[in-house]
Amino acid sequence: MRKLLCANMVRIRKTKVFWGGMVLLAGFNVWMFLDYYFQAKTYKLAMPEIFAESIFRAIVMVGILISVCSSLITGTEYDDGTIRNKLMIGQARVHIYLADELSCLAASMIQAFAAVAAVLLAGFLLIGQPDMDARHFFKVCLVLIFVCVSYVSVFHMFSMLVTSKSHAAMINVLLAFALLIVSAMVEQYLYAPAFITDYITTENGVREVVRDIPNPNYLTGTKRAVYQFLHDFLPSGQNLQMSVFSVQKEMHTALLGLYAAVVTIGTNAVGMILFQRKDIK
Question: What's the whole-model pTM score?
Fold first, then answer.
């Protein structure tokens, strides 16, 4: 499998999709940081806090990038007949599956951490030190690794089972957006306030607070536990959590790592079983 990994990494290194994705994600991350930076200068906000909030903000898009790169990198092997050639020379299907997945994982992690490094460089040059200690930073980096592993395992499964590169890309991109939308809706319900303020408008046109009333959308009991589980279990939910500075400190790293392991093992088991039975012409 070592030879497969080396060959895959050489091929990825020469792939425009890999370099284009890395530049796109890094550029988007820096653009969002600069947007926050100029707003902070305009409204005289605390620069170290703005720096800390911007480091992982744009990484919320990493799932979409991984869905595209995994589909195109693996799909190219189908289009070029590379997978068929690997089987003809005696490579085991399990080794092919794992080697391609590890290669896609390495590529996605390089892209993600390059985007983080780009913002760190811009922030150090323009602001200095962020309002974030080293322990907090490495905690979020660890969750970023979990997110990349989960996303790659899911998208790689579809890329290996769908022979058409364009079809695999379409499925994975739609799935990435669907996961992100579902997690955003779950997050909206989880962070809804327990009470909402009821206002009335007087005859003089002045709004006055009458009372705080219970929010009908506030989740409690079993329903809240289910929503919290979905938010922690889905890679898109983990991705949203790590992209918001105020939520990062509340993340349970060990639990997120456990869920990422379950997603990875489950999708790999299903993917390898079905890939073993797949008729590759």
Answer: 0.90
